[in-house]
Amino acid sequence: MSTTHAPLADHRIVDLSAGIAGSYATKILADGGAEVLTIETPQGDPLRTWSASGAPIEPGSDSALFHHLAASKKSIVVDPDTQTDLDLLHGLLATATAVVWSRESAFANILSPQEISDAHPHLIVTAITPFGLHGPWSDRAATEFTLQAWSGGIVGLGRGNPDRPPVHVGGRVGEWFAGAYAAAATLISARRPGRARGEIIDLSILETQIQGLTYHPVTFLELRERPFRSERSVFVPGVAEAADGMVAVGCATAQQWFDLCVLVGHPEWVDTENPLAITQRAAEAAPEIYRWIGERTVEEVSEKATAFRIPNAPVGNGANVAGFAHYEERGSFVKNPGRGFSQPGHPYRMSAFDLPRPEAAPRLGQHTESYRSEVGSGGTPTSTAAPGAADDNSATALPFAGIRVLDMTAFWAGPSATHVLATLGAEVIHVESTTRPDGTRMIAGVPMSDDQWWEKSPIFSGLNTGKKSITINIQTEQGQKLLHELVATCDVLVENYTPRVLDQVGLDYDSVKALRDDIIMVRMPGFGLDGPWRDKAAFAYVIEDAAGLTWLTGHPDQNPIEPYSIGDPNAGVHALNGLLIALEHRARTGEGTLVEASMIDAALNVAAEQVIEYSANGNLLSREGNRGPVAAPQNLYQTADIDEFGRDDSWVAIAVETDSQWKALVGALGSPDWAADPDLASASGRRRAHDTLDQHLADWCRTRSGDEIVDALWTVDVPVGKVMQPHRQADLPQLQARDFFAQVDHPINPTASHSTLPVRFSAGPDRIALRPAPLLGEHNTEILTTLGLSDTEIAQLEQDKIIGRSLTF
């Protein structure tokens, strides 16, 4: 039976950030047991007075979101204008493992990341900024909305109706995702072998959005000489109205579409000779499909679709999601310890121990005097060396050097987690079979008649650089024996199959633990290892539907639109955090553990604001098109440009968050008479006049190019961004300056640009070099030899089709 354990208890984290990203990063660390010191000015963290719905906050109380994000943290008030308070801050930094910093913080102008690092060279300094600390755009104004535009994430994977403006992904999801990445980057740095000094971690939210909202579009363009998707469309069925609510049904494969045709009573729609016409056929059949769904309840549609293994889910929102039976049975939501409202539980679960339960968020300055006493008495310096550190010669080793990982993942979620491990030094062995390869190999964009077409997938290449490949037919007794032998040599096993798959081949956690007692097994099922939805098919969009991420995306007068992206990479970065916490536990105790990191629990955590706002204040957040809860005006405005496809479909994103930005915008527009209305001087007045502002800004933008608009507004610090096609990311000078894309050679494909990581580590590597993704079964001999097999035995395995290097459908 597991007991409560705090794997990060040896780490003190100083939080000098502002906003959701930094606060969520330190929440993840606090939930792992770290001591997190939130440094606030006498006015308090702005999140204390924040409500996305505008719900009033009584004097002396704090917002529900603050209570959620600040749970288990300590509050220390530091007046930036008082030297004794600054001395206190430096005293705390002297005893910390890491500091999380963002440029929006009230302390950013007092202490830059470099100044902190110079004064406290032992510290890990995790800096979260819109574009990164260096490069031509490093000081440019930005919001999450404008960053989504620059990243290509607003266009995404062709999301939205081409007859309407494109729509951003709602819910400020980019800030939550960046926070999860910042937490992982901090823990990665903390485990560097022989770490005697700290480093600066430079995280770019633009780059995290590229990783989270787009699907290796530059690699696809360069390898296939065409975009992955060049126009927007609404996926059918997608989100539909059932008799008693919204339900989402999706077809990611030809077989799922064929099954849907049978399900709705139209087997004649099946065209096995031309499966590529599915999108067109689905659009033609949409009225009949929607009629079929509309005649049934959400539960009836879900049950029937699940029986056919067609991905589906009810569409969650702040009002209904906590009541879904699956979440109730699994205990996915817990009560906030300070206010009692519902909030998501931990995004991962450990078998060897329970993570600490969150404690109530602190009152402003609650812990100031106790820490002032500690610093005054000299304090206790925090250890800066990783557990089990060898010697100074290992200090430059990559963080995951010496770790062997068995990668039994496929598609996007699992491979995105193991990709980070491979990029930063782990030996990652990607397991496939010649009859069941990784599904992204099928996204090749070339005819199956091409020689070795399965080696030509840009998506597989983007997600699997630096890994090794072994093929094992695990449906055979001999294949299972080989797999078990391989497991025994690995430190970590990561898998994202449906739960029944590994159970059927004898690789449940107890069996894996019997093969290697200290192994860490990370399981990434869509909906968890138990509960009514345990075996439900899970793709990114279904996870987005079931968590509420879909609910906040789209135009308010239409059904919501699935982001069709964030569900997978978000699961990957949360699984990575779970693994890093488990590695800390093993480093201190020698004990392995099962990490259950379901996709849905990760999604519920980044969609937390909806259920928190409804549970605490009774307010249902809903989609607002391209408006948002912070900036006004905020929207997309059409420009005079004709896009690269010859369409009148070019847009810019503008977001005004502050009164000073509004004054700058008015000046850039030439101070027109309509902008002189005194009500517009306040955010509330601008929000009331949003429709009128949109019309004036639309008229001004429509006669100008995107470059003219950006030049006019960015030079006066108004957040603005061109809505980029995702495959044009490599054209951005900021990404070029940061070497975000690496050139990767390949034995079959041409050299092409591949995205690296959205963080730069000052301790190295200075520039991330990527090895090509492996050919199918490329490392069979190398890996099987380490298990003691001879060349003759390996040849026999290939002859018996246990292993191989070509697809054998």
From TrEMBL:
Region (Disordered) location: 368-392
PANTHER family in the record: SUCCINATE--HYDROXYMETHYLGLUTARATE COA-TRANSFERASE
Keyword list, A-Z: Transferase
Taxonomy of the source species: Bacteria, Bacillati, Actinomycetota, Actinomycetes, Mycobacteriales
Comp. bias regions, Low complexity: 380-390
Name of the molecule in the record: CoA-transferase
Listed SUPFAM superfamilies: CoA-transferase family III (CaiB/BaiF) (SSF89796)
Top-level taxon of the source organism: Bacteria
InterPro entries documented for this protein: CoA-transferase_III_domain, CoA-Trfase_fam_III, CoA-Trfase_III_dom3_sf, CoA-Trfase_III_dom_1_sf
GO molecular function: CoA-transferase activity
Keyword Transferase in annotation: yes
Stretches assigned to coiled coil: none
